[in-house]
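note to self: dont lose this again. the chain is below, predicted strucutre after it. 72 aa total, dont forget to put it in the shared folder this time
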Amino acid sequence: MKKKFKCEVDCADCAAKMEDAIKKIDGVIDARVNFLTQKFTLEAEDDRFDEIVQLAVKACKKVEPDCVITVS
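---
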Protein backbone atom coordinates (compact mmCIF):
# COMPACT_ATOMS: atom_id res chain seq x y z
CA MET A 1 0.00 0.00 0.00
CA LYS A 2 1.20 3.50 -0.78
CA LYS A 3 -0.18 6.59 0.90
CA LYS A 4 0.68 10.30 1.26
CA PHE A 5 0.47 12.33 4.45
CA LYS A 6 0.87 16.00 5.28
CA CYS A 7 4.18 16.46 7.07
CA GLU A 8 5.45 19.68 8.64
CA VAL A 9 9.24 19.51 8.68
CA ASP A 10 11.59 22.47 9.27
CA CYS A 11 14.54 21.75 6.98
CA ALA A 12 15.69 19.56 4.11
CA ASP A 13 18.40 17.94 6.23
CA CYS A 14 15.87 16.84 8.84
CA ALA A 15 13.60 15.51 6.06
CA ALA A 16 16.48 13.39 4.73
CA LYS A 17 17.26 12.04 8.21
CA MET A 18 13.58 11.24 8.79
CA GLU A 19 13.42 9.42 5.45
CA ASP A 20 16.48 7.33 6.32
CA ALA A 21 15.03 6.41 9.73
CA ILE A 22 11.71 5.36 8.20
CA LYS A 23 13.37 3.19 5.56
CA LYS A 24 15.01 1.14 8.34
CA ILE A 25 11.62 0.03 9.70
CA ASP A 26 10.77 -3.59 8.93
CA GLY A 27 7.99 -3.76 6.35
CA VAL A 28 8.74 -0.42 4.68
CA ILE A 29 9.12 -0.74 0.92
CA ASP A 30 9.88 2.94 0.26
CA ALA A 31 9.56 6.29 1.98
CA ARG A 32 9.93 9.90 0.87
CA VAL A 33 9.85 13.02 3.01
CA ASN A 34 9.69 16.14 0.85
CA PHE A 35 10.62 19.37 2.61
CA LEU A 36 9.45 21.62 -0.24
CA THR A 37 5.96 20.13 -0.58
CA GLN A 38 5.67 19.19 3.12
CA LYS A 39 4.52 15.68 2.12
CA PHE A 40 5.45 12.26 3.47
CA THR A 41 4.91 9.29 1.15
CA LEU A 42 5.00 5.79 2.61
CA GLU A 43 4.89 2.50 0.76
CA ALA A 44 4.68 -0.48 3.10
CA GLU A 45 3.23 -3.96 3.55
CA ASP A 46 -0.56 -3.89 3.31
CA ASP A 47 -1.28 -6.15 6.27
CA ARG A 48 0.83 -4.06 8.69
CA PHE A 49 0.34 -0.62 7.14
CA ASP A 50 -1.30 1.11 10.13
CA GLU A 51 1.31 -0.28 12.52
CA ILE A 52 4.14 0.84 10.22
CA VAL A 53 2.66 4.35 9.95
CA GLN A 54 2.75 4.68 13.73
CA LEU A 55 6.35 3.42 13.85
CA ALA A 56 7.27 5.93 11.13
CA VAL A 57 5.73 8.79 13.11
CA LYS A 58 7.74 7.75 16.19
CA ALA A 59 10.93 7.55 14.11
CA CYS A 60 10.32 11.04 12.77
CA LYS A 61 9.73 12.43 16.27
CA LYS A 62 13.12 11.04 17.35
CA VAL A 63 14.82 12.90 14.49
CA GLU A 64 12.81 16.11 14.84
CA PRO A 65 10.54 16.38 17.89
CA ASP A 66 8.73 19.41 16.39
CA CYS A 67 7.60 17.65 13.21
CA VAL A 68 3.90 17.10 12.68
CA ILE A 69 2.58 14.28 10.51
CA THR A 70 -1.14 14.33 9.88
CA VAL A 71 -2.40 10.75 9.87
CA SER A 72 -6.07 10.63 8.93
